[in-house]
Amino acid sequence: MCPRKTTKVGRPRSSDNEKSERGERILNAAEELFALHGYDGVTLRTLANAAGVDVALINYYFGPKQQLFDTVFKRRAEILNQERLTALESAQQAAAPDVIAVEKIIEAFLRPLEVAQESDDEGWRNYCALLAYVNNSAVWGPVLMSKHYNDLVDVFIDALRQALPKADDADLYWCYHYMSGAMSLTFANTGRIDKMSGGLCRSDDFQAAYDRMIPFIAAGFRQVCDR
Amino acid sequence: MCPRKTTKVGRPRSSDNEKSERGERILNAAEELFALHGYDGVTLRTLANAAGVDVALINYYFGPKQQLFDTVFKRRAEILNQERLTALESAQQAAAPDVIAVEKIIEAFLRPLEVAQESDDEGWRNYCALLAYVNNSAVWGPVLMSKHYNDLVDVFIDALRQALPKADDADLYWCYHYMSGAMSLTFANTGRIDKMSGGLCRSDDFQAAYDRMIPFIAAGFRQVCDR
DNA sequence: ATTTAAATTCATCGCTTGTTGAATTGTCAA
DNA sequence: TTGACAATTCAACAAGCGATGAATTTAAAT
């Protein structure tokens, strides 16, 4: 007779689905959808549906949409930065008292991304695509990239300046920019290279991408900055 | 008394604003807005307003929104491809009977973009940003890039294969991919490098970007494909 | 002169958007 | 046991969305 209500209003019993972690479910779904469709391509209702959550809960946890976007972008930026920094430091200590080689700096910059993408956590693959979106956007790039990644840039530019003493700063920044672009597209995982190469190369073959990318970028730096 | 009607219904006198070219005005405004905000970030009303045109006229000329997007993307793709091809051919003839050098191939690929961006036609700068958006999008990239640029890729990969006979195809495609990413971000003109470098480098300094990019990319190709 | 077609505006359709206030249910400390 | 607070659903809001049929004006063809 009376139709069984499938969703119950009000605070759920904490034992119902222990560690449901709705907040994180929202962030994960948002990460995936924003990466795929961009900021404006995702509606809060689609997101709520993907996260298995009522639409009002998004605002309850994260405020308005823009703030949610910033939160999603920030979350893994901090982790990634930390891993890059420790990778750089340990490479510098390994090389001491000599100055570190360019290849090692590039490696400290790229390997954390590769490790993240190959991890079990699917969220990292989504985050890399989001990073490509933000990095290439004239609206979000100057805001979010500067806000969350500029400190890291300074550290790596410093390291490169020591490794390439003949370079002037403009050379270093431009080359860093090329690296950033190559990295973004490569790890954005769009499936483009699969089609382009007729299936010979695969977007999700991170090992192949990485093996070639380090020497590619390092040689570029040397050519421009070590003349 | 009677309020002056500022817009008149019906077909306008052809002498009214000769060569008004409303169709092209729509395409140009769409190019700019799509490049800045992406597909979903642009509403047809915003676009109509920017183009100084009634919203219904967009559908009349270009059909539904998706079809408009494709038309915008296609327009300059054909021009760009043609210029890249002739640049490659004339470089090959200049080198004959020797095989062309890697640097010359990269140059044939990049210089048309630089010339376009430095031209008076502001639309080219917008188009480059649009190209970066599409290239990095997992939704549009595999569709539009493949549709409008894959033939060109084949030609350039062929040329690179001749210039780097020791390389296997996977190497070539991956390096091409790095080049594509570096180019996209660099010419996307997001203003990121301006902030990153504290004003030392400027996004719109295409000459500076280009002067360093050719040797950077060429050295990368040689390192990976000429071992 | 008449008819047909092209180019434009207007008004409106049904749906979706982000956001929010109110109601509901559960937890936990006093 | 009561009262404050946390977590959730529901219903609704004004605004905006893409699309389109009808009306209108002009140009071109006959």
**Low-pLDDT runs of chain A:** 1-5
Give, in order, the helices and strands of chain A: HHHHHHHHHH
Distance between the termini of chain A: 84 Å
Strand content of chain A: under 5%
Helical content of chain A stands at over 70%
Mean pLDDT of chain A: 93
Shape of chain A: elongated
Determine the most extensive contact between two protein chains.
A-B, 64 and 64 residues
| Helix/strand class of chain A | mainly alpha
Oligomer: homodimer
**Main sheet specs of chain A:** none
Overall strand count of chain A = 0
- Cα radius of gyration of chain A in angstroms: 21 Å
DSSP helical segment count of chain A:
10
Structural write-up:
The structure is a homodimer of 227-residue chains. Chain A has 227 residues and is an all-alpha fold. Chain A is built from ten helices and no strands. Chain A has helices at 22-37, 44-51, 55-62, 65-95, 102-118, 122-135, 141-163, 169-188, 192-196, 206-225. Chains A and B meet through helix 1, helix 6, helix 7, helix 8 and helix 9 of A and helix 1, helix 6, helix 7, helix 8 and helix 9 of B. The first copy, chain A, binds a DNA duplex (30 and 30 nucleotides) through helix 3.
